[in-house]
């Protein structure tokens, strides 16, 4: 395959990206054993510039290539027929540019849902449909779930999203800001703001201090700890183990209230900026974080051990919502959900982040079910607590570092890609500049883009009453998807 190999957060000239014939490129993608990170188009006069990025996780490299496509092209042979990992990417590309991927097995809308949308149907006397959403109880965002059932058993779940037409990527080109970045997906404030800041810094080859890098990663791990603990409580709440729900909720609050003391926001808004960070973690705050995390670890250990000794808890978690490793690989499931299926992908380690090199990541024994999705959170909470303490130790010798260094101007005709391992998985931000050094394209991929179809697979052959437990175990983002 004709490509240029780059590292995470590396700027390259657009002219250095190989431009190959489209048919040749898609043939190579169809047989590649490297997983896709990006497959998106950019307006290129009377052409469409298709960018592709593949992850070589073993080497810690990103393989970037491109093709020019005539805007008058009506159709092409779908890559998804040969490589199912492209099923969402091709659907999105078709929706944005109108070029039909002929033979795509599931060519449904991604974000542009129409009145003519046709749901999958089944025939049979015992078959019936259950519709949930798009309006839900409480404050969650819109999404529609259509279950095809026989009795109580779910044979197919179809998920329809795209109710929020926010135009985030266009807004990023017109008026980029840290405030916009951290508001795209509120429960991943740190991950999104970090990815945005890194890609902006890469476009100008700006340098930030070691202290700022450490504070960003401490905040990223604290975000992971807080959300995972909250989700553990939500999972137990869905199976009526209310003691666990309440204990985890209180414990999560200790973490986010500490973030409030650091940055003035429980979710870390305003902490990260292009060029560094806005708030310091001094020795006194460092000691407070360590003390708080020790208390959190002790409470989580005790509550988790108690919950998993309960036969009623285990009977609900074990063998519920199973997604096989083969299915997870075929669908390109990423992050925590991928790891719960036995796919050991983690961009913190796979893409050689300098601050994670000496942080040992313990192996996880996946069982591919709701129990696995609960247990992976528990494992990652303990790991992240250990990581934060070690990162804080590294901070001791960087007290004198600047929090902020003025970023440089963007370099014209550039391409940069940043991957951050948020608590759901890889958050990918890609940006390009034009000949004047202005942003010309901004592309975002949330891990939910990969994982929503995995939820549909998890529900199959389970009772319809198991859906809340499966849904909570995946805990995917509507807003991260509905860009």
Residues in helices, as a percent range: 40-55%
Count up the helices.
Answer: 15
CATH architecture of the largest domain: Orthogonal Bundle
Tell the overall outline. Answer: globular
**Mean of all residue-level pLDDT scores:** 95
Major sheet: size, sense and barrel closure? 5 strands, mixed
Low-confidence stretches: none
Please provide the count of β strands.
16
Q: What's the gyration radius in Å?
A: 22 Å
The name of the CATH superfamily of the largest domain reads Cytochrome-c3 Hydrogenase, chain B
CATH topology of the largest domain: Cytochrome-c3 Hydrogenase, chain B
- As an assembly, this protein is single chain
Question: Structural class, judged by helices and strands?
Answer: alpha+beta
Helices and strands in order:
Blueprint lengths: L3 E3 L4 E3 L5 E2 L1 H10 L3 E10 L2 E10 L4 E10 L4 E3 L9 H11 L2 E3 L24 E6 L11 E7 L2 E8 L7 H7 L3 H4 L7 H15 L6 H29 L3 H22 L8 E2 L2 E2 L5 H26 L2 H7 L7 H7 L3 H6 L6 H4 L19 H26 L18 E8 L4 E8 L5 E7 L1 H13 L7 H8 L9
Helix pairs in contact: 5-6, 6-7, 6-13, 6-15, 7-8, 8-13, 14-15
Structure, described:
The chain is built from 15 helices and 16 strands. With 483 residues, the chain is α+β, with helices and mostly antiparallel strands. Helix 5 packs antiparallel against helix 6 and helix 8 (283-308) packs antiparallel against helix 13 (370-395). The mean pLDDT is 95.
